[in-house]
Design a protein that fits this description.
The protein has 364 residues and is of the alpha/beta class. The chain is built from ten helices and eleven strands. A five-stranded mixed sheet has the order 2-1-3-5-4, with helices on both faces.
Length: 364
């Protein structure tokens, strides 16, 4: 096991040679296949924390079906998903999100260190933790993912939800502004739809336009401002936050006269965008990504923090892992003869995969 000090000192920086400069730059395959490693609760796990297991039989075929359907949403980006393995566990830090026995990074990243340490043992795969969600303090959300985490957490086998969460894993943001979406939702629920419309007008007045509803700008410039479903839900919500008419928000636009703006503003969100919140509105193909979103995903897989997935480097053996109280270092030798290194620290965040440390400079 490496120490943190050793991992920062014994690996020399690779020198760029003329031969390396003449080597062709890596490119993504025509279709990039992402191998998925699924981790699910063990069938015998029935502890008092009420984490039930997914079905003991048929879970693999259900995951395969989910991945195949999600692949349809990513077809325009030339990305497909393939199940590479299923692992069962009864470790509470891997089957719950929060609690005194769940070590986390703390803000602002808020990732679970035990899940991260397990995920980086599969550096060439997308690791997905499946667990049954319960509305208690032990769980963050039904499904979630993050830029800093090398894993996705799923509370269902819904393909559209998986496509959305993997979009976050590939560095995509929501099409809406999270704070303003929540604000309009709460206004609709508590004070009615007309109050929500008035709230939207006031937000745009203060912002001097509809950009306040554009959650992925400026990285993505080709998705329209998206105020969220609540602005298109005249029938409102019940006490459990469920829409009284579940498909009402799937249609319609709003043209509003905003004080201080020379022309009316028309809000017409792209409800079929994978990164929106218009659940139940997607067609059989789940939805789509905009050209700008597609460029981000392809760029992240080629040269960003997910390039270990996009370049298809397979690793010759188990990774060497150094897991301290506030840092995780991972080293692996790829079949391209380079050493790949990934690390996370509380102070400096997640640095993504660093390759080309130098062939033949490290062994374990």
């Amino acid at each position: 096991m490496l120490s943190n000090r050793q991992s920062s000192r014994v690996l020399p920086t690779a020198q760029t040679t003329k031969e390396q400069e003449r080597e062709p730059q890596p490119t993504l395959a025509a279709t990039t296949v992402i191998d998925v490693h699924a981790i699910i609760p063990d069938p015998t796990f029935n502890a008092d924390d009420t984490i039930p297991s997914p079905p003991a039989t048929g879970i693999q075929s259900l995951i395969v079906a989910m991945l195949e359907r999600a692949s349809g949403a990513y077809r325009s980006i030339n990305v497909q998903f393939r199940l590479a393995g299923v692992e069962r566990t009864n470790e509470p830090p891997l089957t719950r999100d929060q609690g005194p026995d769940i070590p986390t990074s703390g803000p602002p990243l808020n990732i679970e260190l035990a899940r991260q340490a397990r995920a980086v043992q599969y550096p060439s795969k997308l690791v997905v933790f499946f667990r049954t969600y319960h509305g208690s303090s032990a769980f963050k959300a039904v499904n979630y993912s993050a830029y800093a985490a090398d894993y996705v957490v799923m509370g269902s086998l819904d393909a559209a939800t998986f496509a959305h969460e993997v979009g976050h894993h590939f560095n995509l943001s929501h099409t809406h502004n999270d704070d303003n979406l929540s604000r309009i939702f709460q206004t609709n629920k508590n004070r009615g739809h007309q109050a929500a419309l008035d709230e939207a007008i006031e937000l745009m007045r203060v912002a001097k336009g509809p950009r306040c509803f554009d959650g992925d700008f400026p990285a993505v410039k080709d998705t329209p401002p998206d105020p969220g479903p609540a602005l298109f839900q005249p029938s409102g919500y019940d006490n459990d936050d469920n829409a009284n008419n579940p498909t009402e928000h799937c249609a319609g636009t709003h043209t509003m006269h905003v004080p201080g703006l020379p022309i009316p503003v028309t809000l017409a969100p792209d409800r079929l965008n994978i990164m929106s919140y218009y659940g139940g509105c997607q067609a059989a193909e789940l939805g789509h990504f905009s050209p700008d979103q597609a460029k981000i995903v392809r760029s992240v897989l080629l040269s960003g923090n997910r390039r270990h997935l996009g370049l298809g480097v397979s690793f010759e053996g188990p990774a060497a892992i150094d897991h301290g109280p506030d840092v995780i270092h991972v080293f692996a030798r790829g079949d391209d003869r380079n050493i790949w290194h990934n690390y996370w620290t509380v102070d400096h965040g997640w640095n993504g995969w660093i390759d080309d440390i130098g062939a033949g400079t490290f062994s374990w």
